[in-house]
Amino acid sequence: MTAMLELSGVSKHFGGMKAVNDVSFSVEEGAIYGLIGPNGAGKTTVVNLISGYLKPTAGRITLSGSDLAGLRPHRLAAAGIARTYQNLKLFDESTVLENVLIGRHLSFKGRRWQLGRVRRREEVEQHEVARRLIDRVGLTSVIDVDVAELSYGMRRRVEIARAMATEPRLLLLDEPTAGMNRAESDDIGRLIQMINDEGVTVLLVDHNVRLVTEVCHQVVVLDWGSVLTKAGPHEVWQDERVKTAYLGVKERRTAETVEAPDAGR
Amino acid sequence: MFEWLEPLQLFRLDTALILTLLVISVHITFRVGIMSLAPMGFAAVGGYTAALVATKSELPFAIGLLAATVLAGLIGALFAPPVLRLRGIYMALGSLALAQAIVVLIRINDYTNGPNGIAGIPIEVRTEYLVVALLVAFVLLELSHRSHFGRAAKAVRLDERTAEGMGVNVFRVRFVSFTAAAAVAGCAGALEAHRTTVISPDQYGFATLVIVFTYVLVGGNGHWAGPVLVTWGLTILRDSLHFAGSNWEDVIYGVLLVVILLVAPNGLSDRSLYRGLRRRWRARRDQPAPDVHDPAEKVASR
Questions:
Q1: With 90 as the cut, is the pLDDT of residue A69 above it?
Q2: pTM of the full predicted structure?
Q3: What is the DSSP string of A171-233?
Q4: pLDDT score recorded for residue B236
Q5: Quick one: pLDDT band at residue B257, thresholds 50, 70, 90?
Q6: Are residues B163 and A102, on separate chains, in Cβ contact within 8 Å?
Q7: Mean per-residue pLDDT for B1-27?
Q8: Which of A91, A144, A165 sits opposite B158 (nearest CB)?
Q9: Which residues from A are below 8 Å from B275, CB to CB?
Q10: How far away is chain A from the Cα of B94, in angstroms, using its nearest Cα?
Q11: Does B158 sit within 8 Å of A53, measured CB to CB?
């Protein structure tokens, strides 16, 4: 197994606030990695750094060996990094199909001067791809509905389909099950595994202990902007430091009762 | 083709058609979320280019029109990088400053005959030309609206950061739009010059811009047809309101605008306005089969 994504000594400081401080970890190709940590640990900042929304103050981020420093998000999307957002960022005034088609933007090869049949054929092909993706996340019945009208869980699925439409090698999922019930998050878990089975490497940020334990191959724990530990999905919860970070020092009794994987919400 | 119209009506029709071109220019920028106050500057470039070509050379009208469009587009491309770095109200002010700089340059320059403007521009514009120009513009707009560029433009307007994350080159989409809008405004300026025969720097001020902005905002960003139809509708309305006398005309017009913007705060072509309609249409399409529960219930109720 080779490292696909590699962060070495990555820091991001906002003024005096060290949101991410000297973080190093790598994600193996074809694996599902979990990135967990208490609120404010810097998880989303790490995702924003990898996807180019923020520039690191220090450190290097490489994808399959090539440096990503200073690349704009659209270049990173072209390089094969797709993401979803913690607070859903869908195009509300567009239909499900249109949202997913935006993800296909990079795949349009037609030149500006090629009008008529070439363009139309390409358009039909891209619609076909988008329809397949929408079918896979189970939203075919609402394909022509504005996403503003959809339920929260459905909107999450649209976002995943849209990210998949860019044909990523690395998919960053920022809390895809936030605010979901158990059945819904289990569905998302199956979806993530299905995506991974197709060869997409996944970095999953989530609080959901159950999901992370069942789906991830390896877990990186962040606390106060630094890597606390890296471990397997079952071992990680045995780590005293992880328990302390999540549940606080004084809540030792509670901490001891926490046992993965039943400890989810 | 339009000979049956009275001269005054014909004049108004031409005015409205050229105004429609300016509306299209502004719509092209609004479509990608650019708040640009520069179109009158580009119209000035177009108008003066065409006027100078016509009065100082023997070249035909078509060459002047082409030169006006291309030059306005080039200046637009030059202005785009600094303007597109700005956001919101700063973008509006920045673009206005650059555009007014053009007008000031024209006013203090002897070659453009300073504040007196240029007279004696030959009348070359016929209503037929304007109609053809607009039809071409409509076809291009609709093609772009349906293409992936159109989708990207909409995405950039709704949320440029997210669009970027999906691989859309936000700067390129905006650059192309800004430049195209400048070229269209330049074309409109040239046509206007060849219609009125006289141009002066003062006509490229705020008055026209405010009217154009009103039409574009009332029309909305959803589809180009919104601003275009609003332009025509309100022009016809304004002209027919002449019966009411000038004071009442403005009052009725103003009240109507307020009412429209209360009903449709994002303009008349805003998608969310028609969500209910579309839902009903979808329901009818998706359930063509007769309701199965209905007969059963009837039986049960007996």
A1: no
A2: 0.87
A3: EEEESTTTT--HHHHHHHHHHHHHHHHTT-EEEEE---HHHHHHH-SEEEEEETTEEEEEE-T
A4: 87
A5: confident
A6: yes
A7: 89
A8: A91
A9: 146, 148-149
A10: 25
A11: no
Q: B249 — contact with chain A (CB < 8 Å)?
A: no
- Domain B7-301 listed as CATH 1.10.3470: yes
User: A108 to chain B: which residues are within 8 Å by CB?
Assistant: 148
Which candidate in A102, A118, A147 is best for mutational testing of the B interface (most B CBs within 10 A)?
A102
The whole-chain average pLDDT of chain A stands at 87
Q: Is B273 on the interface with A (CB under 8 A)?
A: no
In this structure, the number of other CB atoms found within 10 A of the CB of residue B294 comes to 9
- B145 neighbourhood in chain A, CB within 8 Å: none
Residues in chain A with CB shorter than 8 Å from the CB of B148 are: 101, 104-105, 108, 123, 126
Task: Say which residues have a Cβ less than 8 Å from residue B176's Cβ, sequence separation at least 6.
Answer: B149
Of B200, B160, B195, the closest CA to residue B35 belongs to B160
Per-residue model confidence as pLDDT tens digits over B147-201: 889 999 999 999 999 999 999 999 999 999 999 999 999 999 999 999 999 999 9
Nearest to B166 among A72, A149, A162 (CB): A162
Residue A207 pLDDT: 84
Take residue A188 and report the two structure tokens written for it: 């998302």
pLDDT at B253: 79
**Complex ipTM:** 0.85
First to last CA, chain B: 68
Whether cis (ω within 30° of 0) applies to the bond prior to A56 is no
Extract the tokens encoding B116. Answer: 């007196």
- Domains of chain A from N-terminus onward: 1-80+168-265 (3.40.50.300), 93-165 (no CATH)
**Cβ atoms A35, A220 nearer than 8 A:** yes
Percent of chain B at pLDDT exceeding 90: 64
